[in-house]
Amino acid sequence: MRSLTRLALSTVAAAALVGAGTGTALADTSSPVSPHIIGGTSGSSPYIVQLVFGQSGGTYGCTGEAISAQWVLTAKHCIDGTQWMDVYYSNSVTNPGTPVAADQVAGSSSGDVALVHLSSAKSLNSYAPLASSYSPAGGTGTIWGYGLTAGGAQPTHLNKATVNVVGSSTDAYGGSAIHVKGSDGASNHGDSGGPLFVDGKVVGVCSTGDVADPGSDIHAGSNYANLTASRSWIRSVTGV
Questions:
Q1: Mean pLDDT per 10-residue run, the chain (240 residues)?
Q2: 85 lies in a domain?
Q3: For residue 70, what are the domain limits?
Q4: Which residues of 129-165 are buried (b: 16+ CB within 10 A; e: fewer)?
Q5: What predicted TM-score, i.e. pTM, was given to this entire model?
């Protein structure tokens, strides 16, 4: 059986995070491969990936960002309790292609941020650009993910949406987060670990939703773990 090497102290399982922090953790616990953001539009990216993983009780899904040929950024609640993980680079949910297996995972001590190491390198023409730091100050951003669409329907492709940055909040582990409200779309289960872009850089990863079930509300709120406190740790582990 495949197993993951832990590069950080073990913490609580993802299932235990429901209702933690300021909302509900947005890992997908409903299907093996999770689909779309609520609302928004279809999009394509070479480095926004699907994570499919096994935890006690089933197979689940999150979103991640390839930041180098062997490292993927995601949310820590997507790795806690995870026994194996596959990374899919196709933006198609219905035809995700051949996965690359993960062999190591690491969780930040500064919030809901994690790193996934691939068992074999996957070279891309570009990787997710990470901000050095970010202080929420209004404006807009763009979120991406493979999370459930309105009413929990199963779509077919990666999606993106514009959100309004409201201010600071708290992630699922009590770390600093960026509070956003949907403009033309909102995050849902399966978007966990997916990126929040501001000014072309990833400033946070999806951690929790303001409510357990946003239904079809394209203006629903969510909290993205701010990468600022984990940025030096990411660099020390990955060199990125």
A1: 49 28 50 53 94 90 96 97 96 93 97 98 98 95 86 77 97 97 88 96 96 85 97 98
A2: yes
A3: 1-13+23-240
A4: ebbeebebeeeebbbbbbbbbbebeebebbbbbbbeb
A5: 0.87
